Amino acid sequence: MNLFGNGVNVLLKKVTSLLLAIALVPMAAFSAAAAPATVAPKAAQTAVKVEYNKRQIAFPDQAPIISQGRTLVPIRPIAESLGFEVNWNEKTRTVTINKGKDNIRLVVTQKIANKNGQTINLDVPAQIVNKRTVVPVRFIAEALSYKVDWDPKTQTVLIADNVNPNQVGQQEKPKDPAKPGTDEKKTEQVALIDKESIEGKTVNVLTIGLYGVTGKVDPQASLVVVMEDQTYEVDVNSDGTFNFEMHTNDGIRTFTLKAEKAGKQDVFEGEFISNDLGV
C-alpha cells in the first residue's frame, strides 16, 4: 500500500488550508489553552490475588488489575501455572493460547476472542500494561475448562480443576438468570484470510487521518473492512491481494476484516500502525 501517494497529497492540501485558517486566529484565542491543566491523581488500585488449586500465583513485575469490574492478569505467569502454551505476535498484537485441542486467540484492545473457530464477545479486551500483556482471567481459565470463583472479601480469583466445559466466556460479575449464560456467536470458520500478510497503517495529520489495509485473501471471497462500526466493501484482485484506503478523522486504532465464501466466514482483528508525518 502506498500511503504517500495521491491520498496523502489530498490530505496535505486539506491540512495546508487548516493551518492557514489557524494562522489568522488572534493569539489571544490560545491563551486559555496555554495554561497547564491540573490532572487528578488516579485512585489507588486494590491489590488482587490469584490462586490455582489453593496455591497463590506470583506475578513478579506486573500485578493483576481490575478494569471495568473484570480481573486482568499478565498472561505469562498464568500460562506457567496452568500449563498451557502462549505465543505473542507483535505485528498483529495477537495472543494465541494452546492447550490440548483448545486454541484461543485474543487481539489487544479488541472485545472479540476466538475459541476453536467460535467468536466470543468480551466485556474487557486484552491490554498492554507496563509492557506486559494482561488478559481477562475468568475467560481464559474457563475457556480451558477450569473452575473460577471470586472471593470479594480477600479480592482473590480462585482457579481450580474440573469445570463444566460449557462455562465459557463468563466473568466476575454475578450471573443474571434472566440472561443467556454466554454471549457466544457461533459461525462456521474457514481459512479465507492470509493473516500473516495483513497490514494496517495510518498517517495522521492534525485531525485528519488516512487509513490503509493491505494483504491477501481467497480470490473468490467477498471482503469488507469494519472501522468504528462502519463497514466498507473491498475489491479483491484476481490473485487475492487487496488494497483498501479511507480518509476519515484520526484516532481510529483498530479494524476488522471479514471474508465470506459459500456461506462460510473468516474474521481477522488488527491494529493500525501509525506513520505520522510530523506536520
UniProtKB/TrEMBL annotation:
Pfam families for the chain: Cu_amine_oxidN1 (PF07833)
InterPro entries, alphabetized: Cu_amine_oxidase-like_N (IPR012854), Mao_N_sf (IPR036582)
Protein keywords: Signal
Signal sequence region: 1-34
Residues covered by the Copper amine oxidase-like N-terminal domain: 53-159
Keyword Hydrolase: no
Domain of life: Bacteria
Protein's name according to its UniProt entry: Copper amine oxidase
